[in-house]
Design brief:
- It is built from 21 helices and six strands.
- The radius of gyration is 29 Å and the shape is globular.
- The protein has three domains: about 5-135, MgtE N-terminal domain-like (MgtE N-terminal fold, Alpha Horseshoe), CATH 1.25.60.10; about 150-255, CBS-domain (Roll), CATH 3.10.580; about 280-450, Tetracycline Repressor, domain 2.
- It has helices spanning about 5-20, 25-30, 35-45, 50-60, 60-70, 75-80, 85-95, 95-105, 110-115, 120-130, 155-165, 190-195, 200-205, 220-230, 250-265, 280-310, 310-315, 325-345, 355-385, 385-415, 420-450; strands at about 150, 175-180, 185-190, 210-215, 230-235, 240-245.
- The chain starts with 5 loop residues before the first helix and ends with a helix.
- Helix content is about 65%, strand content about 5%.
- By secondary structure, it is mainly α.
- Homodimer.
């Protein structure tokens, strides 16, 4: 059976669920057998914890390992809870060292020592060294399974080293070139090795090396790897000695993780870190309730502003009709600016020290947007109500857009400067600021124009 469309996958899951309910393991095995590894992974992501544990035990050892390696780390941790110690130890030992770190960062702290105890001594020592790096740094995401060469080796000697370690190395497409003290002095690609004369010296064909320190942020190293178009990035210690290689597949994985995290937090929720359909409802509630409470508290400021200008609203009740429009426009303008600058921060286009340049650009952008929207607001409100009401709406849109864009552009830079996630800090603050400040601007302009 091949799954080509979503309804096919749904049908397979319905069959699996029914087989599990009927405890018909023979039929269940027949349903699972034709499925490829990607199809099994997609199926696992849509089943419950106990269902996954039962299905996993019906797979052959090789297929089970292949499926396990492709699962998100959070689901790997869930699955380990439902397996016996011997199965857990075997699966963990079969993982690549960098994949083990992903898993150890997800499982409960009480489970981590049990996983490490099941490793051979050499692998356990290697894992301990990687765990010695702080969370979030590239030292926990690099692989120590690589092939290196020396600048005074020949191409033939280097190719022999590649063949010798081909089965155990995670990457052989980029080889770091070392000197006598293990410092990285260059890199050489497998393509260049295969195209060179075997008697040629590595020093003659190697290229300058781009490196990252093991204590650098993993996202920084991932973006560096992607921006430079590298298949692998040598990771060094503070003395430029090689300690591992950071591969492009891990870089892409980190960037996808960071993009998902930023998108979730800009929407006012915590990232799930697992597929949606395999996430418990209680976890969904916890991921959303905190920001809803924060925004609800911020909304009380809007109520206070409205109560302070209650007399103004009583004199010109039509002003109340435009409150949602002005708040919504200001909030959208601020969030657009914050999203743009947050993205620029992530790509390294701007730094916190560029705040004055960003403020200048966003102020001009906000004024331009405000002029366009304000002119439209003046025309519509002026025709429907009166020219003075149109003038109030037009001037308010101009002022609110300029203020919201300026604050929205500055907030991610301020957040980065105080070491807070810009995606977490920016949008809730902007929503609260625009709701309260925008109303104050609105009613002050109305009082001045309408002589209230």
């Amino acid at each position: 059976m091949t799954i080509n469309q979503n309804h096919d996958l749904t049908a397979v899951i319905d069959t699996i669920t029914q087989d599990l309910s009927d405890k018909d393991l023979v039929s269940l095995t027949q349903t699972l057998t034709p499925l490829s590894v990607p199809e099994l992974v997609r199926t696992f992501e849509r089943l419950g914890l106990r269902q996954r544990a039962v299905i996993f035990r019906l797979l052959s050892k090789q297929r089970a390992l292949e499926v396990f390696e492709e699962l998100p780390p959070a689901l790997q941790g869930d699955l380990l809870d439902g397996l016996q110690d011997a199965e857990v130890a075997r699966l963990f030992a079969e993982l690549d060292p960098d994949d083990r770190m992903w898993l150890l960062d997800e499982v409960p702290s009480a489970l981590a020592p049990r996983l490490l105890r099941g490793l051979p001594e050499a692998e356990r020592q290697l894992a301990a060294e990687m765990l010695g790096y702080p969370q979030g740094c590239v030292g926990r995401r690099m692989t120590p399974e690589y092939v290196s060469t020396r600048f005074n080796f020949t191409v033939g000697q280097t190719l022999a080293r590649v063949r010798e370690r081909l089965d155990e190395a995670e990457t052989v497409y980029t080889l770091p070139v070392l000197d006598g003290s293990r410092q990285v002095v260059g890199v050489v690609s497998l393509r260049d090795l295969l195209g060179a004369d075997e008697s040629a010296a590595i020093e003659a064909i190697m290229q300058p090396a781009h490196t990252a320190e093991a204590t650098d942020e993993a996202e920084f190293a991932a973006r560096r790897c992607a921006d430079l178009g590298l298949l692998a990035l040598p990771i060094v210690d503070s003395e430029s000695r090689l300690v591992g290689m950071f591969t492009i597949d891990d870089a892409v994985r980190i960037l996808e993780h960071e993009e998902s995290e930023d998108a979730a937090r800009q929407g006012g929720v915590e990232p799930l870190r697992r597929p949606y359909l395999s996430t418990p409802v209680l976890t969904l509630v916890r991921s959303r309730v905190v920001w809803l409470l924060v925004l609800a508290v911020g909304a009380t400021l809007t109520v206070r502003v409205l109560s302070a200008f209650e007399a103004t609203l009583e004199q010109v009740t039509v002003l109340a009709l435009f409150v949602p429009l002005l708040i919504g426009t200001g909030g959208n303008t601020g969030n657009q600016a914050a999203t743009t600058v947050t993205r620029a921060l992530a790509l390294g286009d701007v730094k916190p020290r560029d705040i004055l340049k960003v403020l200048s650009r966003e102020l001009r952008t906000g004024c331009a947007l405000g002029l366009l929207l304000g002119a439209l607001g003046f025309a519509v409100a002026g025709l429907v109500y009166s020219p003075l009401i149109g003038l109030v709406i037009g001037l308010t849109l101009l002022a609110v857009c300029a203020a919201a864009a300026t604050v929205g552009g500055a907030m991610p830079l301020v957040a980065r400067a105080i070491r807070v996630d810009p995606a977490v800090f920016s949008n809730p603050f902007i929503t609260t600021f625009v709701d309260a400040t925008g109303l104050v601007i609105y009613f002050l302009i109305a009082r001045a124009v309408l002589q209230l």
